[in-house]
């Protein structure tokens, strides 16, 4: 066998047999977590758009609506926090996902 075939065989053994199957379960769990973080980021993006619309709706008329402006800013802030949370979560998963198969 050449080294590429040996590497593939070793990777397959670690995925299926490594740590009694725990490696594969951990890997799949992290993939599901990453999908959840993507959903959180999309939700944060939607909140930012809704917040911007609310902010503009409160800012444009001659009579400024301070309540709408406040809700718009709060919604934008919450959406940005969700996007940051999702990004950090995906980054952490990306950094640690290879650890399942290196043992």
Tell me briefly what this model is.
The chain is an all-alpha fold.
Textual characterization of the structure:
This protein is mainly α and 103 residues long. The chain contains three helices and no strands. Helix 2 (22-59) packs antiparallel against helix 3 (66-96). The longest helix is centred in the middle third of the chain and has 38 residues, at 22-59. The chain is rod-shaped.
- Number of DSSP helices? 3
Shape: rod-shaped
**Proportion of residues in β-strands:** under 5%
Q: From N to C, what is the helix and strand string?
A: HHH
Q: Poorly predicted ranges (pLDDT <50, ≥5 residues)? A: none
- How many runs of DSSP E, i.e. beta strands? 0
C-alpha termini separation? 22 Å
For the largest beta-sheet, the strand count, sense and barrel status come to:
none
What integer value in Å does the Rg equal? 22 Å
Helical amount? over 70%
- Please, what is the average pLDDT? 84
Find the structural class using helix and strand composition: mainly alpha
